[in-house]
Design brief:
The chain is α/β, with parallel strands linked by helices. It is built from 8 helices and 5 strands, in the order E-H-E-H-H-E-H-H-E-H-H-E-H.
Length: 216
């Protein structure tokens, strides 16, 4: 059995990643693909504990470099436990966030720079790169508003993943700009979906790209 296909989704919270991953998984399964869906941080027992620490707004005084290390610890575990075995089994792996998120949020947002992120990626991820990355970049202000509204709702249900949403607009502008930098640097791997099109329209655009890449 040949190696599977590794597809990641990127973008700010509120960009629609979760919805598009779900729709794409359904489409892939309908055409006979075996699909593994995961997320980062999280997706493994250890990763879920790291996720809680990283995203809980009660986590205080976490240094930017400690945050960076935790992100890659989660990722290394996910590669070993989920991603690599699924790819070896020939699955299509859909992952909500990967190293591009770390480069955007910690490299850009936290101003640690890209170099340290990419070096850690080589060591901790053994250089494993996605075959395709879908970067969702809707309107910046609308995306940020949706993310903060959503996290306020989840807090009411007892789930607090609001730590990053407490950052100011300047932080998110740096994240947004770093995503654009990544997309410009790696045009073959990263396909950007810009604008506030309807959910179904974006899904169809993603399907066309994925179908073409799988056909290769």
């Amino acid at each position: 059995m040949g190696r599977g296909f590794f597809l990641t989704f990127e973008g700010l919270d509120g960009s629609g990643k979760t919805t598009q991953i779900s729709r794409l998984a359904t489409w892939l399964e309908a055409r006979g693909e075996t699909v593994t869906v995961t997320r980062q941080p999280g997706g493994t027992r250890i990763g879920d504990r790291i996720r809680q620490l990283l995203l809980d707004s009660r986590t205080e005084n976490l240094s930017a470099r400690a945050e960076l290390g935790l992100m890659f610890s989660d990722r290394a575990q996910a590669i070993t436990e989920i991603i690599s075995p699924a790819l070896e089994a020939g699955h299509v792996v859909l992952c909500d966030r990967y190293t591009d998120s770390t480069e955007a949020y910690q490299g850009g947002g936290r101003q640690l720079g890209s170099e340290v992120v990419l070096k850690l990626h080589e060591v901790m991820c053994r250089g494993l790169q996605p075959d395709l990355t879908i970067l969702l970049l809707p309107d910046f202000d609308a995306s940020l508003t949706r993310a903060r509204r959503r996290n306020n709702r989840t807090k009411k249900t007892g789930t607090d993943e609001n730590r990053f949403e407490r950052e100011d607009e300047a932080f998110y502008r740096r994240v947004y700009d770093k995503y654009r930098e990544i997309a410009a640097r790696d045009k073959l791997r990263v396909v950007t979906m810009e604008g506030d099109a309807r959910i179904e329209e974006i899904h169809q655009r993603i399907v066309r790209v994925v179908e073409e890449r799988l056909a290769r």
